[in-house]
Amino acid sequence: MLWGKLGQPACGLGKLPPGACRAFWGWLNAVFNKVDYERIQAVGPDRAASEWLLRCGALVRYRGYQKWQQDYNGLPTGPLGKYKIEAINATDSCIMYRGFDYLDGLEHVTEITLQKCIYIQDACLQRLSETKNLQKSLLQLKIISCGNVTDKGIIALHKLTNLEYLYLSDLPGIREKETTVRILQQALPNLEVELDLE
Fold it and tell me: Whole-angstrom Cα distance, residue 156 to residue 151?
């Protein structure tokens, strides 16, 4: 990424005050997550969400395709509505709560992976769970190495009524795993939960 090459030398030489690089990246990531409602109207929810996710470093897979789309400049063209997002892999991405309005119009997402997402926190999982279309379509969710997720965020997933599989790994914020899983499975009796937590 060009910004990384430009920003690192200045940060490495100590020319910037402590924390300036982190603040810059935080600001840039917030810009990447700003929702453009006009863009959603112009190109449709799946294309706009694809642009947001890829801009933030995530991958998407479209319904009927096996290949993951990872190149923003290689987004498929064609008639509006042709490419429907079926899966999202947000590993190492900068997606954050601010951008979750992009998920509202997605009707075909069956699988989401949130791995090493430093901006994912309980409010994000609550928002995910409250997204009407995801309540109907989402079947699999994996949350791995997201340090800001706690028991509260996992319990908030109870509104994802069609969720069949939940994988939780390396989540130090989860302190009461047995209680959390029990509460979630009471709300979602068909849910299979796989844990890899210390």
Answer: 9
Q: Is 143 helix (H, G, I), strand (E, B) or coil?
A: strand
Q: What is the pTM of this model?
A: 0.87
Distance (Å, whole) CA 26 – CA 29: 5
**Each residue's pLDDT tens digit, 8-26:** 444 554 565 655 565 555 5
Q: Using DSSP, how many helices (H) and how many strands (E) does the chain show?
A: 8, 7
Tokens representing 42? 């112009």
Helix 2-12 vs helix 20-32: angle between axes, to the nearest 10 degrees? 160
Whole-Å CA distances, 158 to 109, 113, 115, 128: 17, 17, 20, 10
- Give dist(CA 117, CA 113) in Å, integer: 10
Asked if 61 and 67 count as a contact pair (C-beta separation under 8 A), the reply is yes
What single-letter DSSP state applies at residue 57?
Answer: T
With a CB cutoff of 8 Å and minimum separation 6, the contacts of 108 are 46, 63, 84, 85, 86, 137
